[in-house]
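Review form for a predicted model. The reviewer records the input and the model, then writes brief findings.
Reviewer: anonymous (R2)
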Amino acid sequence: MPFEIPQRILDLNPRCVPIREGKKGPAVVGWPDTQARASDLDTSVFNHNKYGIVLDDDMLVVDVDVHDDHKNGYASLQLIKDDFGIDLYETAELIVKSPSGGAHLYFSKDTEVAFPKSTQDYPGLDFLSKGCQVIGPGSAHDSFDGVYEIIKDNMSEVSEIPSSLALSLKPQKDAVEPVKKVNHESPVDEFNRSERAVEIVKQELRAAGYTVITKGDGTAEFVRPGKTSGINEISGTVGLVSGNGNILLNNFSTNDPTGFPDDGSITLAHAYGKLKNIGWHQVPVDLRELGFGCNDEITDDEILEVQRSLGVDLEESYPTQTLEMLKSSAPDRRPYVIEGLLRRGETMNIIAAPKTGKSWFVYNLAATLATGGEFLGWTSPHNLKCMIVDNELHAEELAFRVSGVQEQLGVDFGDDLHFCCLRGASIDMLKLEEKLIAAGANRFDVIILDALYRFLPAGTSENDNAQMMLIYNTIDRIARTFDCSVICVHHSSKGSQNDKQVSDVGAGAGSISRAADTQIVLFPHATHGLVCIEAITRSSKTPEARSARLDGFAWVQVHEDAVRKAEGPDKESKKMVQATQNSLKRASRARKVGEWLESNDRIWPDQAPEVIGESKNVLRTILKDHLVPAGVLTFHNFYYQRTEAWREKLDDFIRSPETEHEKEILAPSGG
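Model under review:
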């Protein structure tokens, strides 16, 4: 449901960010640095039902919450009035009421004064400023009916909150004492020299899948996720001190999934930012919230509180819920971006043999997503914004191809279809995340990666299930970060795929198809020039197979039964020929054994070169698996002894074909 920004907010024109329905945080990566203003927001976007006002350091919003009798913000406002003679509710010139019963009181403030975010003496009140955002008036509430509404507006300048109040408020344990800006050690500097920071970084490494081994001297070694044992299995160390007193993380690996520099050293604050996947502007804010950058000694209880708080972000993002809570927080299934095939936030593989036309398939699919309409019987319910990230074609070739598709389909992509050409850029899946953040990829509904194999980090094998699972975890993280669907173009393994299930097609590890929510495969059709298109889905009914052909630049559906092309020369004939060849080899070796037994009554496996001219293992197989069961030889104390009827038994064995076809080839030859 779209939102509407009141004229009063448009007049103030603060920095703003859109927020999707059902989400608590902004839909913009790096939102604290956004320069978009209220007048810049598109309020008609179908899946945005609210927006956030991003606060600057000269702004302060008193967030009044009403959680329960013990945390009533209105009661705390009265306490502040009683204690300091400051009536914040009366002083505020602009007040917004929440459908939940709470309120936002808007003030300006001295940029040199810092307020604690919360206080232990005045529960139910949060003092929000730079680095925070609040839901703007006109926005919908996800849990209560109604919208955030301006209930007080004197149409004057927003009143300034008394600076004296900041110095009077006592912060909670995890808040920073409000003081005037003075020259003291910054949160980053203190963190980089703190033994406690070593423990925090170690905990973040473990949360990211690293194995951490603490040594007796207080330092630690770590092994990156997916690292196999062997030479140089330690990926790095944490805890060594540099010449300037900073404690370092040293990375030895050239294949680190977090983005630590290859064979280099970084400070603990730098490592923390990479592990938490936050921008550098956010690192000092986080470290200050962890208690760094203040002069007071930190108690053991506060250290325990910090350790507990490290999991708060995860619990907020992935809360533990009852079924009723789950249904309330996610009442509706995700909307389709391709009806019956792919939902928002899901991943899809498109797989075919090389030169089948899968890239053309992608261009036609992207055209449908960007302009609406139908593609091979599938429809896109909206005109969506798409981006194709191509790492195979030169820009000129990509422009030629997509222009041909646009012209033949008679559509205009406008600014709904974007391209990123990365051929030769050596950008793997991990660097791609950084690229997408810089490109503002949150504006796209669908991101297409063509082709997957070129995004694999160096040393990653597409045949390794564990490594490919990490790659698809990254793809899922991209989908979650940007609230979009991700489509991966992948190739099939060598040889014919027509006898395989859809879920089994695709080069590499089985986790590639299992991790995706949807998999489409283009199979050769029984009719020359056509293709069978089959798909399996996780959150939809499996669609029926369909037939199509590439007509110029466009794929078109053909109303002909989707029948896969039969296997090449009769597969059973191939098996028969192979079995015959195997029988001929066995018979040839058996005859050589017979020649040996004419003058020797026993055979030792080590005599293989003399007996059959091949390896000991080959001789042991023909003796143990074939001639002993056939009664030609018996086994005694590591050697093989001929039987009394060895000539007859050997002749019977040689003339015992496995198929009718072999009888003609293995006809009696006189033994």
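Findings: The longest strand covers residues 48-54.
Further findings: The CA atoms of residues 33 and 607 lie 79 Å apart.
Recommendation: see findings above.
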